[in-house]
Amino acid sequence: MLLKEVNYQIQGVELAEIAKEFGSPVYVYDAEKILSQFQRLKNAFSGVNLKIKYAAKALTNQAILKLLNKAGSGIDVVSLQELELGLLAGFEAKDIMFTPNCVAYEEIQAGVKKGVTINLDNLPFLEKFGKEYGSSVPCCIRINPHIDAGGNVKIMTGHKESKFGISIEQFPEILNIVSKYNIDIIGLHIHSGSDFKSADAFVKAADILFDLSNNFKNLRFLDFGSGFKVAYKEGDYTTDIAELGEKMSSSFQQFCKKYGRDLELWFEPGKFLVSESGYLLVQTNVVKETPDLTFVGVNSGLNHLIRPMMYGAYHSIVNISNPSGVEKPYNVVGYICETDTFGSGLVMNEVREGDILAIKNAGAYGFSMSSNYNSRFRPAEVLVYKGKAHLIRKRETMEDLLRNQVNLEL
Ligand SMILES: *Cc1c(COP(=O)(O)O)cnc(C)c1O
């Protein structure tokens, strides 16, 4: 009983109270959780110069960016707009890594003007970059290491057919271009998706980067991207951060010794920092019994949280309005006129019309992937910071839906 109640509050603030005060649907984030994840990652690495570059695309609210900036994080951005949001939140250009994929070359030029670190991920742009800037603007190269890693590791962006990074098989061409224009390579980067499970898989990927590093004399950092796995349900395998820190720290130290200089070790976690901090609170519109199933229809849908429909992601859901109700299986569905399922066969305390449900692990790729589909307003966002709930984004209104529409007299 007690345990359950603890789940339904953040820093002593009742989730139910937040829904009452700010309405629903509403995204709620726990600042303490974000900071503790940040600290956990920092603490796991010792004897190396670790830099954390939060992957801003996971959740870009200014309050979250400011929180992480204050904690000492840098950021990784994938668009000029995220770059601007980062600068507005107080990040200095030197702490921003720009890792675009298939953007126009003009965006890269604009990034250079802003003074951020550019991460190049294709040969034509490396060539253009060299031609234009020569050795005057340092940059990083994103390598696709083609880790299909046997069996248990499913990798989403580091495999051979992926559109990300420059293939390791094209490494000789990288070297040709770099020497032709004398490009100042200060970093190498790999990001192998979000499905790395074991610390050993990371270390294996790191070894590949260590090998390549010996071809560049001016390196300042190696960036191992992200891929930390977080638990979405009980029993899910997660990356053992302590083990990862221990193994990576020691192999990185050895590498630096051989390389002859202490480099920075970078990671770009998104999910790891913000996923578990977030809850999407929704209200039950209807409980609909069919001969086989019980549907709980809520006042939200794939327009607000697309992960279940887009990736088949599992999110656990709890009924915070009836914590002692009898447990029953439910299919929780949204109000969008498409197949719109948040979860099937979920066991929850009995759900009644009007009950507030909390969809967990909604901090990463929740609001940032939300839309106005079905002409619905996007939810409000609330950050619980120092024991108090703060509104950090207002719920949209009709004005927002019409803002950029141009009236045509017909
Ligand atoms: C999306 C992304 C990340 C973050 O991935 P998570 O799985 O959320 O940790 C890191 N680096 C790059 C380049 C990305 O595109």
Brief descriptors of the model:
single chain; 410 residues; alpha/beta; TIM Barrel; 2 domains; 13 helices; 24% strand; globular; binds pyridoxal-5'-phosphate
Number of strands: 20
CATH first level of the largest domain: which class? Alpha Beta
Q: Helical region count?
A: 13
Give the strand content. Answer: 15-25%
Major sheet, described briefly?
A: 9 strands, mixed
Per CATH, what is the topology of the largest domain? TIM Barrel
What's the overall geometry?
Answer: globular
**Total separate domains:** 2
- What small molecules accompany the polymer chains? pyridoxal-5'-phosphate
Return the CATH architecture of the largest domain: Alpha-Beta Barrel
What share of the residues lie within helices? 25-40%
Beginning-to-end CA distance, first to last residue = 62 Å
CA gyration radius, whole angstroms: 23 Å
